[in-house]
Amino acid sequence: MTEIPAENYAPGWRDGSRPELPTTGDEREVLTAFLDWHRETFALKCSGVAPERLSDKGVPPSGLSLHGLIRHLAGVERWWFRTQFAGEDVPVLYYSDDDPDQDFASLDGDPAEALAVWRAECERAREIVAATPSLDATGRVVATGKPISLRVVLVKLIAEYARHNGHADLLRERIDGATGF
């Protein structure tokens, strides 16, 4: 495996330079700031870990690993923003009907590549959000055809990251004792 370059992680993870969350602002500013804060928090939890350790499943009997979470969150970003909301015809990541848990279970590939895919999906999601004039704009839920607003997608992603950042806390602490991101 190749070493994950430091520039793949945003600055501020231990020196306090990560931006504070807003206490005022319009709905879009607050929701996107909270989502980006959670994305950054996740990146920080993965930073500084030797690539081969990112695949450690350190909290038995759970099959979770930081590498698996990176893959999972890349897929979540793509699914909600690109497929469900924007209606882009893109293949799903790390999933198939025959192997629905491959994001966590099949940890083949380089974690640095998975991190780059995740970062690209986050960036594409930011572009979609920036290009959408209103949080009331809707996409379509693939399974049901029901409309889903950008507002709901943003809230869903904040919840997804909050949950998985908790998992990442435990995994990171098991790997090297690091806490407090």
Verbal overview:
This protein is mainly α and 181 residues long. It has a single domain, classed as dinb family like domain (Four Helix Bundle (Hemerythrin (Met), subunit A), Up-down Bundle). Helices cover 51% and strands 3% of the residues. It contains five helices and two strands. The chain has helices spanning 27-46, 66-85, 102-105, 111-131, 150-176, and strands at 138-140, 147-149. A two-stranded antiparallel ribbon has the order 1-2. A hairpin with a 6-residue loop joins strand 1 and strand 2 (147-149). Helix 2 (66-85) runs parallel beside helix 4 (111-131). It is globular, with a radius of gyration of 16 Å. The two termini are 25 Å apart.
Brief write-up:
The protein is mainly alpha-helical and 181 residues long.
Write the SSE topology:
Blueprint (H helix, E strand, L loop, with lengths): L26 H20 L19 H20 L16 H4 L5 H21 L6 E3 L6 E3 H27 L5
Antiparallel strand pairs: 1-2
The main sheet orders its strands as: 1-2
> Mind telling me the CATH superfamily name?
dinb family like domain
Mean pLDDT: 89
CATH class assignment: Mainly Alpha
Tags for this model:
single chain, 5 helices, 51% helix, 181 residues, disordered N terminus, mainly alpha, Four Helix Bundle (Hemerythrin (Met), subunit A)
